[in-house]
Amino acid sequence: MRRETIAVHGGYEDDPTTKAVAVPIYQTAAYSFESADHAAALFNLEAEGFRYTRISNPTTAVLERRVAELEGGLEALCVATGQAAVNYAVGNVTQLGSNIVSVPQLYGTTHTLFAHVLPNQGVTVRFAESDEAHAIEALIDDNTRGVYCESVGNPAGNVCDIEALAQVAHKHGVPLIVDNTVPTPILLRPIEYGADIVVHSLTKFMGGHGTTLGGAVVDAGNFPWEKHADRFPMFSQPDASYHHLVYTEHFKRAAYIGRCRSVYQRTAGAVLSPLSSFLLLQGLETVALRVERHVENGARVAQFLREDPRVEWVNYAGFEDSPWHGLARKYLDGQGCSLMTFGVRGGYEAAKRFYDALELVKRLVNIGDAKSLACHPASTTHRQMSGEEQRKAGVTPETLRISVGIEHFEDILEDLDRALAAATPTVKWPPIHAEARRKKRHFDGNV
Ligand SMILES: *Cc1c(COP(=O)(O)O)cnc(C)c1O
Question: Maximum distance among all alpha carbons in the chain?
Fold first, then answer.
């Protein structure tokens, strides 16, 4: 099936007991056993079935299947938040003394996890100087257990060269882990370019309505864990925490998710509730339609901001002169995502005035909602970072991030126009009346 169809049908046929067409919400903590032997077979992973919702749940299982199919992966594990997914994905390949090599521009909380939390657990993250493969390769050593990037970075909108990063990672016998939250598999499937593990915040475009937190870890099923058993003994050595199970023997190609579920989900317990899985499935049904409109509106907003003299700069990979446009052509069909950053003329104070004057566009820290959203990273998502860390993450004091929603684009542009006027009262603009400019935009049609 194609992605639009998977989004609607993937992982589900009518419920076997009731023939319900909508995925039922199995709001249960546990499942009864037929007998002691049946229970033992389930715990031995010899029989298929459910034991306890911290391990797996039938509603969540549909979501897991659907997300795996959308990404072109083998299996997925869905968890409570995107952050839990990042934590599990990295934890599943590391041990005391391991390191991960990461690109520098990351989602704020992922950066915090990598720079400050994991090191206390004996896992260090080495941030490369840039996104480029040679910068990553320079930091890989015998203790490296993975390369990490965001396919499209939040908030900077930088596009990573997944194919080049996968080559470097594989040359050194480690997997490439890609956070694909921003483009979604509708725009980009990292596994097609060699990524081994894909993580998601389902909270964003996948769920799409800003109602439900969720995360996913997807395994391509391609990484040869046994071949690199010296680096990854956890997959091919008996696991004392799970009656000496050998994951590569038991789960074969699905060893990564098998272990992630049996060890991380079972012990860390960042479980997605069945109701949340249902809500995320509802959202996913329209992900292809929504992303199309998000991208279309994003292009219009980027063009509007760029042409406006009250705006100093716009970072948008859809522009031909963007440093990421070559990669956007390769990975995103030349399109930018609906997430972009820009700077209002007048620095920090003007950015604040702009932000406070928004009416339609919501002031909050989220992305990928049907609603247009704006955030000021320096005072929120990236606040815990030093100035230098912020700069490396692509955030300056005046940077504003906008996640363009699916409203009518004229309403979004009018709100931005109004906020820009409030932000820059001294800029001699409008030279033509606002109404005339609005008509002109209508006339110009597509950008
Ligand atoms: C939001 C986000 C996360 C974290 O997801 P939560 O669901 O908020 O925990 C991780 N990575 C990226 C790129 C994000 O945008």
Answer: 81
Q: Is the pLDDT of residue 397 over 70?
A: yes
- For residue 164, the CA-to-ligand 1 centroid distance in Å is 24
Q: Which domains does the chain have, with CATH numbers?
A: 3-283 (3.40.640.10), 288-440 (3.90.1150.10)
Determine if the pTM surpasses 0.90. yes
Helices (H) and strands (E) in the chain, counts: 19, 12
Instruction: Indicate whether residue 179 lines ligand 1 (CB < 6 A).
Output: yes
User: CA dist 144 to 95, 138, 217, 220, 406, Å?
Assistant: 10, 11, 20, 20, 41
What is the Cα–Cα distance from 304 to 131, expressed in whole angstroms? Answer: 28
CA-CA distance, 204 to 215, in Å (whole number)?
Answer: 9
Q: What's the CA-to-centroid distance between 385 and ligand 1, angstroms?
A: 17
Residue nearest atom 6 in ligand 1 by C-alpha distance: 82
| Residue 387: predicted pLDDT | 82
Average pLDDT value for residue range 15-30: 94
